[in-house]
Amino acid sequence: MVSIPLLLAFLAPAAFACCKPLERRSMRVHESRSSVPQGFVNQGPAAPDTVLHMRIALTQSDSAGLEDALMAVSTPGSASFGQHLSKEEVEAFVSPSQDTTDAVRTFLEQSGIQATEITPAGDWLGFQITVGEANQLFDSNFNVFKHAESGRENIVTMAYSVPADLSEHVRLVHPTISAFPKLPLITTPLVNPISQASSSSDVTPPASCTNVTTPACLQDLYNIPTAAAKSSSNNLGVAGFIEEFANKQDLSLFLKTLRPDINPATTFHLETLDNGTNSQVLADAGFEASLDIQYTVGIATGVPVTFISAGEQNFDSDLDGFLDMIRFLQFQISPPQVLTTSYGQDEDDVSPALAESLCNAYAQLGARGVSILFSSGDGGVGGGGQGLECTTFEPAFPSGCPFMTSVGATTDIPETSAFFSSGGFSNVFARPAYQAQAVAAYLKRLGTTNAGLFNTTGRAFPDVAAQGTDFEVFVDQQPFLISGTSCSSPLFAAMVSLVNAELLSAGKRPLGFLNPFLYGAAAGAFSDITTGSNPGCGTNGFPALEGWDPVTGLGTPNFSALLAAAKKAAGL
């Protein structure tokens, strides 16, 4: 286990003392919600003495400059391609100006609040106050909202204000309007136990790979090498949330059964945050964590894998540790070169300002050479797979962020779209230039289908796809078949890590933020998927058509072609 004492410093806000009487300043509504998300019930005012862990995101000095730098180091053909920024260089872009820091700190100190910096760049401040004090300080009205299906409760306000002269210095205050407590897990839609007798102990790829998906099947399907990576200096990070634990005994059995050419003692490293743990009691093993670990270790042969387990004591409320995990990695001198996450939620549940702040954090890591990958979701055009009714298409979050790579799912051989593969168009983020041509071509072919149900100018997702059905996984020493985009993201992340290993062994830099490369130099490395759709919201969803589509993205990868494109882009 990796212990990082610094984590305690930035996750534990300063002791609080609020609020001194002060002269009333002109207040302005900073963020608000017009309605409560479906499935939530207002339980009434929150108890005034309840303590809130508050966060303020400060206006960054040059976020546009960060985006320009990110695209420059990520776009093949650019003079800066591969020249990733250092931790300090990234922080110079996002650190707030001294005027901004002074203005916000003065406002808080006048109310008796001593805030602490909780990010390396100082663009987030943390402190604790009570509900009563927060209502007074931000002209807010915090109530308890309960999610009927999950039973989870959280404290939310429908609007809050900041002094009018302070609004230009504040990006957002959190948790405020976004902290609706719906489970953020993108679950695998199908988990089936299978008998030991039917477990695929024969590692020879079946002719069709249609009954059970195994590492051997995937290696055959996508031309993935079985030899160990030439360089072990890169690291593949696997994000774990909501007490999903990865078990080492299960991994060993998986390797013995399905990758007998790998030493069954091969394991993963562990890092934790927010009081996270990783219980090794077999009965505590989670389906999601087991899937993610077994198919990263089992596909990215020889690449060190780190399981990053976020605990329940997170301070980003509705994001259940997403933001905390990125902060955790921002403090590291050498974060993993690839991070895969098989969790998410619906974009509508997150305020635009919070969504943009998390997306900006992904841009910061991308500029440092980290590839951020997420499962696209398991609800078709209905979003993250939460099962709620919808009248217009619901984008999944954070797949709408333009600075990460969203991975959809396919099924069967020959491959076709998996019906559950979430895809669509963001209502928050505009379409980035790197995908403009590919998406415009799709919209032209789509014509008037689904007109009025989605944002035709939004960032489109997923970016790529991979197999996502009937993956054989061992949980509590028993074999199961698991399906979902949760299968696709760790699989593609493993392939990216193998490409990185080749680049690093040749003295080159890892790929980092992938999308400009994927839509450009690597576009020919994908098999186009032109059948199937992703139904939802009472419709057939989007059809998979020639070229990019919002079900399978650019298609499924051919590892050999992907590696060749990466080497060519790197000048090898």
TrEMBL record:
<feature type="active site" description="Charge relay system">
    <location>
        <position position="486"/>
    </location>
</feature>
<dbReference type="InterPro" id="IPR036852">
    <property type="entry name" value="Peptidase_S8/S53_dom_sf"/>
</dbReference>
<keyword id="KW-0964">Secreted</keyword>
<keyword id="KW-0720">Serine protease</keyword>
<feature type="signal peptide">
    <location>
        <begin position="1"/>
        <end position="17"/>
    </location>
</feature>
<dbReference type="InterPro" id="IPR030400">
    <property type="entry name" value="Sedolisin_dom"/>
</dbReference>
<keyword id="KW-0325">Glycoprotein</keyword>
<keyword id="KW-0645">Protease</keyword>
<dbReference type="GO" id="GO:0004252">
    <property type="term" value="F:serine-type endopeptidase activity"/>
</dbReference>
<dbReference type="Pfam" id="PF00082">
    <property type="entry name" value="Peptidase_S8"/>
</dbReference>
<dbReference type="GO" id="GO:0006508">
    <property type="term" value="P:proteolysis"/>
</dbReference>
<dbReference type="GO" id="GO:0005576">
    <property type="term" value="C:extracellular region"/>
</dbReference>
<comment type="function">
    <text>Secreted tripeptidyl-peptidase which degrades proteins at acidic pHs and is involved in virulence.</text>
</comment>
<dbReference type="Pfam" id="PF09286">
    <property type="entry name" value="Pro-kuma_activ"/>
</dbReference>
<keyword id="KW-0106">Calcium</keyword>
<keyword id="KW-0865">Zymogen</keyword>
<feature type="binding site">
    <location>
        <position position="529"/>
    </location>
    <ligand>
        <name>Ca(2+)</name>
    </ligand>
</feature>
<dbReference type="InterPro" id="IPR015366">
    <property type="entry name" value="S53_propep"/>
</dbReference>
<dbReference type="InterPro" id="IPR000209">
    <property type="entry name" value="Peptidase_S8/S53_dom"/>
</dbReference>
<feature type="active site" description="Charge relay system">
    <location>
        <position position="292"/>
    </location>
</feature>
<feature type="domain" description="Peptidase S53">
    <location>
        <begin position="212"/>
        <end position="569"/>
    </location>
</feature>
<dbReference type="InterPro" id="IPR050819">
    <property type="entry name" value="Tripeptidyl-peptidase_I"/>
</dbReference>
<feature type="binding site">
    <location>
        <position position="547"/>
    </location>
    <ligand>
        <name>Ca(2+)</name>
    </ligand>
</feature>
<feature type="binding site">
    <location>
        <position position="528"/>
    </location>
    <ligand>
        <name>Ca(2+)</name>
    </ligand>
</feature>
<keyword id="KW-0843">Virulence</keyword>
<feature type="binding site">
    <location>
        <position position="549"/>
    </location>
    <ligand>
        <name>Ca(2+)</name>
    </ligand>
</feature>
<protein>
    <recommendedName>
        <fullName>tripeptidyl-peptidase II</fullName>
        <ecNumber>3.4.14.10</ecNumber>
    </recommendedName>
</protein>
<dbReference type="GO" id="GO:0008240">
    <property type="term" value="F:tripeptidyl-peptidase activity"/>
</dbReference>
<feature type="active site" description="Charge relay system">
    <location>
        <position position="288"/>
    </location>
</feature>
<keyword id="KW-0378">Hydrolase</keyword>
<dbReference type="GO" id="GO:0046872">
    <property type="term" value="F:metal ion binding"/>
</dbReference>
<keyword id="KW-0479">Metal-binding</keyword>
<keyword id="KW-0732">Signal</keyword>
